[in-house]
Amino acid sequence: MSALAGIEDWPQLWGVPNTAAVVVTTDGGIAEARGDQDREFGLASVTKLLTAYAVLVALEEEAVALTDPAGPSGSTVEHLLAHTAGYGFDSGAVAVTRPGSKRVYSNQGIEVLARHLAEATGIDFGTYLSEAVLAPLGMSATTLPGSPAAGGRSTAADLARFATELLNPQLIARETLDEAVRVHFPGLPGILPGLGRFDPLDWGLGFERNFARPRHWAGSRVSGSTFGHFGAGGTFLWADPERGLACVCLSDLDFGEWSKQAWPALSDEVVAGHG
User: Fold this and answer.
1) Under the phi-then-psi rule, with left for phi > 0, alpha for psi from -120 to 50, and beta for the rest, what region is 159?
2) Smallest Cα–Cα separation from 109: which of 130, 87, 91, 90?
3) Does the pLDDT of residue 91 top 80, yes or no?
4) In whole angstroms, what is the distance from residue 242 CA to residue 240 CA?
5) Contacts for 113-118 with beta carbons within 8 Å, 24 or more apart?
6) Which residues form the Beta-lactamase-related domain (predicted)?
7) Which 8-state DSSP code applies to residue 1?
8) Across-strand partners of 76?
9) Is the model's pLDDT at 109 over the cut of 90?
10) What CATH architecture applies to the domain 5-274?
11) pTM exceeding 0.90
12) pLDDT by residue (tens digit) across 168-185?
């Protein structure tokens, strides 16, 4: 049975209007795909993965550095990427804690990061993202009409190309990606929006690293080396380098109780069927 077959029941079970999902493997092959792969969806916070990757390219180009001061006093590019700059979840530009002391998930930090990169390069962030990441990967259907933290739009077909890059990086060195998915500022507790408090709440440079834990949105069968992100608009992408698998799932129903049940089950089926 298809590992992704369950998404075809989501309209009846959960009232999900549209869903597209795809599984890719380390060799770049599409292991399985369901739904309209060319349908455009809002990415919500999965956008952060694309933004982070553009910053990784900029790091290799030495256009920016992790130690660059950016954001609140005492904060750096590294703090912004790892959600430890001191901004609150919904505090806007106001810092609520000392940089490096807490993991507080914040769109503001990612938006400040994108502005920092634009100022450092003299290139509008959307243009930099397109030239550094989207165009080289052939992601012609992906756009950034809104916030670099949550305003991207894309298709399952395009994100399959990005997921392939995450499993087998070509735009950046393997060492750069390894550094990005390493847990930065380890040991910090925090709240994963919509899912509650985790201690610790592990994060890399833009990549969530809290996988293979109870109550996680990606289920229990992915390995602890998995990294990725989910979006409140009903989207997720995870890459499991240990199993050589990545899964993209896009929908147009906001994250909620339905996704807390449907997403772990789907991810477990993917690992069982393709891992």
Assistant:
1) alpha
2) 87
3) no
4) 6
5) 113/51, 113/55, 113/70, 113/71, 113/77, 113/80, 113/81, 113/148, 114/51, 114/148, 114/149, 116/64, 116/68, 116/70, 116/71, 116/77, 116/80, 117/54, 117/55, 117/58, 117/63, 117/64
6) 20-265
7) -
8) 69
9) yes
10) 3-Layer(aba) Sandwich (3.40)
11) yes
12) 999 999 999 999 999 999
Which residues, 6 or more positions from 122, have their beta carbon under 8 angstroms from its beta carbon?
none
Q: Which residues are registered as beta bridge partners of 236?
A: 230, 249
pLDDT mean over 40-52: 98
d(CA 235, CA 233): 6
Residue type, 100: G
DSSP-derived letter for residue 5 is G
Residue 4's contacts (CB-CB under 8 Å, 6 or more residues apart) are 21, 22, 23, 32, 33, 34, 266, 269, 270
SS3 annotation, 233-263: CCEEEEEECCCCEEEEEEECCCCCHHHHHHH
Give the tens place of pLDDT for each residue, 59-86.
999 999 999 999 999 999 999 999 999 9
Question: Which tokens is 132 given?
Answer: 């550094």
The size of the chain, in residues, is: 275
